[in-house]
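Quick one: structure tokens for this chain, please?
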Amino acid sequence: MGQSGSGKSTLLNLIGGLDQPTGGSVRIDGIELAGLPDDELTRVRREKIGFVFQFFNLLPTLSAYDNIALPLRLQRKAGPLVRERTLRHLGLVGLSGRADHLPDELSGGECQRVAIARALVMDPVVLLADEPTGNLDSKTGAEILALLQQINRQTGSTLVMVTHDAAAASSCDRILRLRDGHLEGEERQQRGEAGDAGEPSTGAGTLPRQIAPAGRRARGSQP
């Protein structure tokens, strides 16, 4: 969490293998990203990382079904597997009845649900969400945050969300605050059984020198 220019997007790009670090280490599922050949880095992004964008980035000429199925088809997965996974993820985000609709026939919240399903269809170990509610009204944004929490619990994929919105950040289990490219604070949300946030626990003085994104061993957590 942080204001514009704090380094949020840069950090997300580093975790996602879109940028290369000038120092330190970034590991996804035990794989060191720095120095990987381009084809290997592409494979890691495709198979282990899901991206959710503020403006959805759906292909306008493809239906909701085909947008979600696209990563599987690019991997040349078998037809029955493509259908099973796509329909399952449509159901996961509550859009089973909207499979044939084009993006311009869907609401903003529905488009973001399609984008989330597309990001999850390859079963990534980490889901990166860049301001996922920034282009939505407050009610729809709250629904998307609740959906991300539900998916985090159901699939076990680690969720890393970038936001400048305190309300959105409060939905996470752990909040890392960035300022001018530096980590300046950490909070851990204490949650009850229902997943509701309680009083934040400030981790002042306990920040690690290096933060590496979680892989399979830490699935089910929300940084």
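The beta strands are 27-28, 31-32, 49-52, 126-130, 158-162, 174-179, 182-191, 197-202.
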